């Protein structure tokens, strides 16, 4: 089962490498990783999606907690988070398929952000299932290029639990 874990890390060289190396050494595969500064510029939030059984979650927290730059770790269950991905998708545009591209974009609430002679570029922010859906819908029309941000998430809880911070 996939789990979403967030780590707060000090903004310092090697923090990302140290954390991903720790996961690698324990044989934990990272499916998605997004990193950016938080409200305070000296700390970043890493949102990591991993495949793990319930019993492995303690191991994941332990592995992340052993990394010096990590200041807090939180496992987010599906009912405790708000999560989104960003998709940028360039589709081959011909006079015949432009109406279908536009109809699909409207249906998924995607935004056309660039147009040139041969392609339309769409931006879509949504949950992973809807991102997958627009990709499936537009694939037959000729996807030229796509990029996904990976999952970003925040907890719906008022505050992280007391045991999520490293001492």
Please render the helix and strand layout as text.
Blueprint: E1 2-10, H1 15-25, E2 30-37, E3 43-51, H2 57-65, E4 70-76, E5 81-92, H3 98-108, E6 111-115, E7 119-126, H4 128-142, E8 143-148, E9 152-155
Antiparallel strand pairs: 1-3, 1-4, 2-3, 5-7, 5-8, 5-9, 6-7
Helix pairs in contact: 3-4
Name a few traits of the molecule.
4 helices; 167 residues; 28% helix; single chain; alpha+beta; elongated; disordered C terminus; five-stranded antiparallel sheet; four-stranded antiparallel sheet
Would you write up a description of this structure?
It contains 4 helices and 9 strands. It is of the alpha+beta class and 167 residues long. The strands form 2 sheets. Strands 5, 6, 7, 8 and 9 form a 5-stranded antiparallel beta sheet that branches. A 4-stranded antiparallel beta sheet has the order 2-3-1-4, with helices on one face. Strand 2 (30-37) and strand 3 (43-51) form a beta hairpin. It starts with a strand and ends in a 12-residue tail after the last strand. Residues 161-167 have low confidence and may be disordered.
- Biggest β-sheet: count, sense, barrel? 5 strands, antiparallel
Low-confidence stretches: 161-167
Along the chain, the helix and strand elements come as EHEEHEEHEEHEE
The tally of beta strands, per DSSP, is: 9
Overall 3D geometry?
Answer: elongated
Overall mean pLDDT stands at 87
Task: Classify the secondary structure makeup into a structural class.
Answer: alpha+beta
Specify the helix fraction band.
Answer: 25-40%
Radius of gyration, in Å, reads 19 Å
Oligomer: single chain
């Amino acid at each position: 089962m996939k789990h979403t874990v967030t780590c707060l890390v000090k903004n310092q060289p090697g923090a990302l490498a140290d954390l991903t190396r720790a996961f690698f050494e324990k044989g934990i595969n990272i499916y998605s990783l997004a990193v950016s500064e938080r409200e305070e510029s000296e700390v970043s939030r890493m949102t990591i999606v991993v495949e793990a059984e319930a019993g492995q979650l303690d191991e994941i927290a332990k592995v992340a907690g052993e990394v010096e730059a990590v200041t807090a770790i939180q496992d987010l269950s599906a009912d405790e988070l708000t999560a989104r991905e960003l998709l940028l998708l360039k589709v081959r545009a011909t006079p015949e398929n432009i109406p279908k591209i536009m109809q699909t974009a409207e249906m998924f609430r995607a935004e056309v952000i660039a147009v040139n002679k041969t392609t339309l570029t769409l931006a879509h922010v949504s949950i992973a299932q809807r991102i997958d859906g627009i990709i499936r819908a537009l694939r037959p029309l000729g996807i030229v290029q796509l990029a996904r941000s990976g999952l970003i998430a925040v907890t719906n809880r008022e505050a992280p639990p007391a045991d999520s911070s490293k001492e």
